[in-house]
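In the previous chapter we treated chains in isolation. Here, by contrast, the input contains two separate entities that must be folded as one system, with a combined length of 267 residues.
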Amino acid sequence: MAKSHEFRRREAPILEQLGVRVIVMRAGTFVDLQKSMELTLREEVEALLYEAGIKAGRSSTKVLLREWGEKDFMRRWAEFYSSDGCGWFKLEKAEVEPEKGGVVRISGSFIAEEYGRSEKPVCHFLCGFLVGVFRELLGVELTCKETKCAAMGEPYCEFKLERYDINKP
Amino acid sequence: MGVLNELFGPSIRLLVLDLFLENPDRLMNLREVARLLGKNPGSVSRVLPRLVEDGLLEQVKIGKNIYAYRLNLENEVVRLLQEFQSRLKQLRIKEGGR
């Protein structure tokens, strides 16, 4: 006999954190979405995910700054995105200066780990996300490149952030 | 917004291609392209290599690890695109005049 799948409607199925609606999603679902888009949109997806990441990073950092303030922000931010919180990654190093940019190193990127082996970096969303986060924290325009990616066999993912002047070529 | 992006987009790849088709003789670096399009350089850097790989743009080394890009006028597809873009613009002007 086939198993039946019953769905019972319950009250208030909305999950909120810090006053914002959140969802719990299987990490592989995000990667499935990325891979499905890659099949039809190729490198355009990389740019789209990067841009989406910038928006997401800016929006979430505004919420977190409002909630926590600037004091001790990076430590709380690192905990929030680690396995104690959202489970996105573990922050290993973040040295970013407003004058020139810097380097962010993470391990356990949910994208790199779920993606499988790749010949090129795959954490485009996180790359943009870091731009958005540090744009809000430092108030300067930044661009980011993933220089090492765990999906390529590296032990961690590393992102190089560079400051740029929007008015200068 | 260029004609290709308007017709087949929106797409960052087409925005970049349109910019080079509008400026066929201009050599531009990554940040200049990004600035002219109002995009983050990281977005543009993701679509530029493929345009070079497809032969639509030329990559020119202008310094140690510094590159600039220009339209590859030797490419037959580029010449067709220029013709297409020009004829489409004429059509738009005609339609706008009616």
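Chain B has one domain: 3-97. Residues 76-97 of chain B form the longest helix (22 residues). Compare these points with the single-chain example from earlier in the chapter.
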